[in-house]
Structure formats: C-alpha cells, structure tokens
Specification:
Elements (H helix, E strand, L loop, with lengths): L1 H5 L4 H28 L1 H15 L6 H12 L1 H8 L3 H22 L2 H20 L6 H6 L1
Helix pairs in contact: 2-4, 2-5, 2-7, 3-4, 4-5, 4-6, 5-6, 6-7
Length: 141
Amino acid sequence: MKNLFLSKRNFLPEFSFLILRFFTGIMMCYFHGWQKLIGGPERWAKLGNWLSGAIGQPALNIPLGFMAVFAESIGALFLAFGLLTRPMSFLLAFTMMIATLKNFTEVGLQKGELSFIFFLLALVVLLIGSGKYSLDQLFFK
C-alpha cells in the first residue's frame, strides 16, 4: 500500500485525470445540457438572452444559446470520452465563464458557485489536454 502513494509511475496521474475529465463531461451533460438540448429554440433563446443583451445584439440570442447548449451537452460528451478535447473544453469553459458572470451579477456567489466549479474543471482540461486515456490519443496520436 505504501508503494501506491509513493510510486512515481505515470499510471495514477493519468488515471486520475481520466476520472476528472470523464465525470466532468458526464455530469455536465446529464444534469445541465441534455434537457436544454431537447428544449428547442425557445429554451436556447432564453439561455442566449443575457449575453446577446450584454453585447447589444439581441438577434443573436438563439445562436448564442445554442452554442451554450451544444457545449453543455454534445461538447461535454466529447470531453468525457476525450474526443476533440481542447476545442470542447474551450467551449465549455467559455460557456461556464459566461454563466458564472451572469449568476454572480444577478444573484451572487451562492448561485454562481456550481458554474464557477465547472469553469475551473473545463479550464484544467483545456490546459492539460486529453490525457493518455482518451479517444484523441487513439485517433490523433
């Protein structure tokens, strides 16, 4: 047991990162993205409304909302399996940064905590990449 914690082998960090990446993607998709994806354009418009209003382009509410929904659902699944990991983690990090800003400005820290945690997780995956155990490594080695 002592060797497990003191070992300098590469297995444990890579496996730990796989767990982090996989469960970040699965939890984001299951609890946040999938229902929004099947919600359709009306739901996407509501999601994109804050950012489109902030940049002064209200006509962009559906495309911006769809981008957020895509990042939280399909992008999160890609992230979980390590496919196109950096682009998908960038989309998710950007989406979670906007959600965090919206939550912090509208309701404060308590409402924005979860989106901030997902932002940090997506940022870590963006910086590290897909890791050893991923479809990116299998297909794009």
